[in-house]
């Protein structure tokens, strides 16, 4: 037991209640130490309800065991609601079926909040014994309980809940509950015809959200019966309904939908033509090619762009000639980029040409585009040229084109390190093709480092190509084998890594490697059965090279690719990774897939029953600039209370035209294009308030703010490059709340820290899910977004004005209890809370107590939708005048930057 733990255990018996609370919270940051459990459990009988609540929350981060779970179950009957809620939360995190029956018993609790929390906990535990009690909760008098019951039933996924939900939809009077019920039928009723008719009835509802959500749920059935009624809604007056309709129809591959969307390419409404062009790419029917080629000449930039993307998706060489012709004349950069990418996809998947450089017209026009004035066009052209070269086995040329694509990519985009990794990978392929084995360890290390950097820039996604480079790394090691034993080990590892690569492919790409895998499996078995000597075995391995390079071509043609995995797929991958760590597997050396599958059950079971590691992760994010820049000075901070509403929504819905409609009108485009530095025009000074986000930036800069902060959900992701330009041009710092960033199939809000002349744009991601994102596209993911990030992750930003941490939305409620510990251990100078939710006096009092406890400022920003922006200081609150709902503006605050950094401690 460490000295600090001993001190904390002594402190939990202090006469001062506040000191005891602080010690209990800090003990909740210590993991896998059984010595703290018994002292905490004793405090569950304490007379002070706050102590009991804190103990439960601190115990909830420990490993699940009956020793902890049973006393917390007893706390469900506590007379204080906050203690009950803490127990419910803890049991939901443990997800132990021991809690199912006790939780069911309190579903009749008189407190609405208790019932609502209990329902969610039962859903997270996913015990089928809770099914019927949860169904009964659909009749609860409280609307939040009914909503939570729908979420919980979706978690259980039992079709027996379909009929009760249909009954609820027919009788429900609360629109929000009804919307959630409509949404929940989709994931519950996949393949179940019972949900079709009740949902179709809502397609004629006067409420556009009922129509939209009914379409989303119908789309998940992929039932041909939905085609006819949905076709009628492609012209709906509501944009979200039209989008939902197009998305649903594009998932039902039927000749009727293809024919209808082809006809819509001639619609008088440009948005409908755009939607049709996008849907035809998803449907994947080559009958759409002629219609999409015709759409390349559309008057709308957006339609031409979507048509080009869809032609690229179809990968049919019949479209190349038209794409090349239009590409030469196209003026719009976004459309030109889409066409360059489409040409790369088509030509990269066409039969290789012996004299492709001279004979391939696509190569010629793309090569000419490398000198285009737009950076994005140059980057896309170089990347497409690389893919065409790989298809033609010109790996040296592909290496150079990928390097060019990396150089032309923006420094804050993931494609810069990704293309550099691909360039290095092509160098490996070039060496292997020339039989230059060995000496490539540093190249592989650089590949993985660059892919890791790229992954961090887009939310830690996984790139499929990483697994391919690991295959080539093992293949290279085979030829360095000093004896047959080493050869056999590398040989087995090669087969496992090929299988792992195939298993990691998304569902719609699962058949991509089947032919290559079959050929490789046959050769593996031949080599193994013949018992060849080392030299003869190496000759046979040379014969495998064309098949391995064929796999590489297929993988690189689809990269970069966002990787999503369902639970079964992830378990299978864990099995293969386990096998690859075993030093010898005898019979598995042949890599017979059937043999592998026989070994999976025990290893899968180990993964399924493995304890969840619930650690609290902290990551330091230093900047590459002087972190003492403002030491001892006053920093002018602008806290923007930004009103969400129709205008903000239009930014997201219509972001393609945002530059054309607003920014381009007020700023000197030529100066911006050449230098990427914002330049005001005279007209921009007259219209500084348009668009609203830029207007507030202008105002804050004019009034001398060096740090400008926007609350949660205040702007679309597409605005980040523009904010970077402001930071560079005016030497300011911006913290921006951005909504609904996709991270491995889930949607989270983020807060980006933008600093001047800094290529890096670090962010804090919200650890709690976004259950109902704001657009139809994200609505499709709502079931996946119920779980929180485990373990929660927080960034410690080391800035020129001190160290700080950001909590977003519900994270404030869930994790603010750890702020004192983090402040002490990491020397925080202030904490920043960004919110888009209800603010009340009780919460304000809580934030004030927290600021007093840590003796550091807490900056709390809420959106204008709810109000409540304040700065909480020790013993004092600087209240913003922007308190009322539906108000907005800038709250100016002077922050006294500390003279020296506080000492750092290791966790």
UniProtKB/TrEMBL annotation:
<dbReference type="InterPro" id="IPR036526">
    <property type="entry name" value="C-N_Hydrolase_sf"/>
</dbReference>
<dbReference type="InterPro" id="IPR003010">
    <property type="entry name" value="C-N_Hydrolase"/>
</dbReference>
<feature type="domain" description="CN hydrolase">
    <location>
        <begin position="672"/>
        <end position="907"/>
    </location>
</feature>
<comment type="function">
    <text>Catalyzes the hydroxylation of the N(6)-(4-aminobutyl)-L-lysine intermediate produced by deoxyhypusine synthase/DHPS on a critical lysine of the eukaryotic translation initiation factor 5A/eIF-5A. This is the second step of the post-translational modification of that lysine into an unusual amino acid residue named hypusine. Hypusination is unique to mature eIF-5A factor and is essential for its function.</text>
</comment>
<protein>
    <recommendedName>
        <fullName>CN hydrolase domain-containing protein</fullName>
    </recommendedName>
</protein>
<dbReference type="InterPro" id="IPR004155">
    <property type="entry name" value="PBS_lyase_HEAT"/>
</dbReference>
<dbReference type="InterPro" id="IPR011989">
    <property type="entry name" value="ARM-like"/>
</dbReference>
<dbReference type="InterPro" id="IPR016024">
    <property type="entry name" value="ARM-type_fold"/>
</dbReference>
<dbReference type="InterPro" id="IPR021133">
    <property type="entry name" value="HEAT_type_2"/>
</dbReference>
<dbReference type="Pfam" id="PF13646">
    <property type="entry name" value="HEAT_2"/>
</dbReference>
<dbReference type="Pfam" id="PF03130">
    <property type="entry name" value="HEAT_PBS"/>
</dbReference>
